[in-house]
């Protein structure tokens, strides 16, 4: 009898082990199936290219809303950016020797002395607005890309400077649309999942500054597509990290690295030449051929179509050299324009989903 009882216990243990193994196998199959349905898309590019704005747009387009607390904390950053920018413009007027041309010198001096952590108020807003509207300060603003790199002013802060009466109200809370224009420097990696035509797209926004790029390699496994974002408007600007390096040259070199990276050989390549609006504005202020790095620009100067084509060819030449067998999908974009990003994403999503099917062996 003792032997029978012992045998029953062994048999029961075996049956339990079989059930556990089946459960583990099922979980593994489900995990594999979910991974195959997931499309991992990396947003890569240099700092200030606008890729984080594209990331914000994707959240808007797919119904992902910021909480009131998130909007509050980002609104505080907007206030700091406004005050910082106003102070820099006044100081640069002094550095350029044109401060005497300012029509409200006493107000300008008061603005230059503001604490960047000051709480928003109507009075502060009026003072900054008076300085901002001054013709001398507007001329200084037009020269902002030639400031010393330590004065790192975001182009998009103009959106808020033009709306100071609203923005500097103590009750102001930035909307999700407003925050498209707020500078967001990505530190580390930010991810967001979206469902597109029954498949999951996991979008990874990875920091673009030089000190962030060493983290990229940890996210290069099993990538469906890479969206590389470069700013057209930075052709005449220098890196914050290295004042001797042209920003567009840095973007081209980084694009080469992405194209020839062995971990990304199976990923679809998408190129966004971004900040179309700022590039168009700059065509009346800066000559491409006058920048030493772009002396081969054939012209005509001031023509944004010719300029965009020139830089697009630079990128496509690099990818043709580094990965001649791969097709690069490319678009000229304005990341702050929701409708533009909607159209562009509709155009590239089939490429992303097709890449997913090829990766899973279904094509």
The CATH topology name of the largest domain reads Rossmann fold
Structural class: alpha/beta
> CATH class of the largest domain, please?
Alpha Beta
SSE succession: HEHHHHHHHEEHEHEHHEH
Amino- and carboxy-terminal Cα gap: 61 Å
**What is the CATH superfamily label of the largest domain?**
P-loop containing nucleotide triphosphate hydrolases
The strand count comes to 6
From the alpha-carbon coordinates, what is the Rg to the nearest angstrom? Answer: 26 Å
The spatial strand order of the largest sheet comes to 2-3-1-4-5-6
Question: What is the level-2 CATH architecture name of the largest domain?
Answer: 3-Layer(aba) Sandwich
GO molecular function, one term: G protein-coupled receptor binding
Binding site for GTP: 155-156, 180-186, 205-209, 274-277, 335
Binding site for Mg(2+): 52, 186
Keywords: GTP-binding, Magnesium, Metal-binding, Nucleotide-binding, Transducer
Describe the structure.
InterPro entries: Gprotein_alpha_su (IPR001019), GproteinA_insert (IPR011025), P-loop_NTPase (IPR027417). One of its GO terms (cellular component) is heterotrimeric G-protein complex. Keywords: GTP-binding, Magnesium, Metal-binding, Nucleotide-binding, Transducer. The chain is α/β, with parallel strands linked by helices. It has 2 domains: 39-65 and 186-356, Rossmann fold; 68-180, GI Alpha 1, domain 2-like (Orthogonal Bundle). It has helices at 2-37, 51-61, 68-95, 105-112, 122-132, 135-142, 157-161, 164-167, 210-213, 247-260, 276-282, 304-322, 338-359; strands spanning 38-45, 189-196, 199-206, 225-231, 268-274, 328-332. Strands 2-3-1-4-5-6 form a 6-stranded mixed sheet, with helices on both faces. α3 (68-95) crosses α4, α3 crosses α6 (135-142) and α4 crosses α5 (122-132). The chain is globular and about 90 Å long. The chain starts with a helix and ends with a helix.
